[in-house]
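Service request form, structural biology core

Requester: graduate student, group of Dr. S.
Request type: structure prediction, single chain
Budget code: on file
Notes: please return the result as C-alpha cells.

Sequence provided:
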Amino acid sequence: MKYMLGFTGSFLILCLLITAIILPNMPDAQASEQNQQQSEIILQSSAAEEKSEKEEYEYILCGYKGVIAAYKTGQSDPVYISTVRVSDLPENDRKRLENGIGAVSRRELNRLIEEYCS
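Core staff response, request fulfilled:
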C-alpha cells in the first residue's frame, strides 16, 4: 500500500514538473488568434483602400473626440460613437482613421466597427 501511494505521488509530481516545463514554452492560443485577426484586419483594410476612388461611401469611420465614431456621409453628427480610444490602437490604424475609412453600406460599417471596437 505504501509502495502504491509513493509511486502515485511520484508520478503526479513528475507530471506537474513536465507540465511546468512545457506549458510556458507553448504559444498562447489567444495571442496567436489575436495576431491572426489583426493580420486579417490589415488585409481587409488594404482591400478596402484599393477600391475605386470614384466609389461613393455611405459611411465614414474616423476619430471623434479621441474615440472611434461613424458618420453618415454629408452629416456632421456621428451615427455611432464607440468607447475605444484611438490612442490605444496601433499606429497604422490611427493613421487610417485620421484619413477616414469609407464603408459603402451599413453592413460594411458594422463589420468595420466590429473589427476596430472588439
